[in-house]
Each structure stands twice: as C-alpha cells, then as structure tokens.
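B., you asked whether I could sanity-check this one before it goes into the benchmark set. Here's the sequence:
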Amino acid sequence: MTYEEVFRELAQDRDNVARWYGHRSREYRRKALKARAFPITWTADYLSPRKNRYIICTQCTRRDYIRYHALTAVALRKEEKGYSVYLTYIGSNTMIKPTVLLPHVFDRYAERAGVNKTGTELIAHFVSKVSGGTILDDEHLAGRSVRYKGRDHMFIAISEGVLLGDKEHGIFVARTFITYDMATGLQREQFEEAKGKLFSVEDEIRYVRNI
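And here's what the prediction gave me:
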C-alpha cells in the first residue's frame, strides 16, 4: 500500500480507536487517581477490528488535570527492517498532518537519545516522550528546510530532537533523527526557534479545558 492508501485506511478506523479508548480509559483514570507523583504515562497496544495495530499513549501532568489528558495514537506497519509508524491522532486534533516515521528513525533515536529499548517497546517509549509535543503546522511542513549531510531536509521538532525527512504527495516522511546537541551553524538557530514553539502536554490540556 502507498502512504496515501494507508492513511485512508486509518481514517476509516478512527471510530474503532475512539470507542476502544473510551472503554479502556478507566485504567488510565485508576492509575492517575492512585499516583503519588506526576507526570504519569499510560500506554497500551491495540489491534482494531480492521486489523490495524496501534500504540496508544495518555499522559497527565497534574492531579487536577486527570479529567483532561493528552492522547496520542500511532499506527504500526511491519516492514523488512522494522516498523514504520504513522502518526494518526495527537491530543484533541481531529486530523493531524499526515506523517510517517520510517524504521531508521527509531534506530537513530535509540542510539542518539541513549534509549536501551528495541521494537515496539522502543516505539512506545518514543510516543510517550513526544506526546503532545510535536509541531505539525503548515509552516513547518510546507516550506521549512535544513541542510544536513549535504542534503536539504524538511524537519519537525519534537521534545527530544528533530525528525528530518521530505514530503511525498503531501505526506511528511521522516527518515532520520538527530538531537539538538548535534545541530551546527544555521541548524542550531532553526531548531531552537522550532523548539520554542512546541505544543506541550500542559498546553494541550489547557486547550481541552477551554473548549
């Protein structure tokens, strides 16, 4: 399937994901009510009736925010070199800009962010770290680029670094990951500007509370 076909398939699965999370969210609430320290993260693995596999992550930063939490869901597609990840739902956005993370992204993320995990455990860790914090606006997907290893890449800033890639038929395809410390020259200025615009978990919760 092409990237476009996969996203069309996932759009048809949206109600299944929302319904499943509605039933399972009690587990998150129980964990939050018993928590003695915040933030807390609840992560689950879900196989939908359409046979799409998801990792779903919920975060809560404060006890008085238990009712208002940031939800992230990503869909997994098994490939020869690992899993590609399709960002499907982040927070209260009804549809985010289509974004695919290729398996190489997670190899570099583990290596460069110092994470000793592999496979779906690594992906779940990644999702819990970036939940609510990804820039997915038109400005960054439409024209922002950075020079890296002799090539121009489009980029998305996340809490732990930068996803570098390009666009294919309107879809951002992330091909590698670098940390902010790896930035040099103009990269550093571009990345720091983007990092300053990150939409945090608490920003998301405040947004939901005001709807």
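One thing to flag: The two ends are 37 Å apart (CA to CA). Otherwise nothing jumped out at me.
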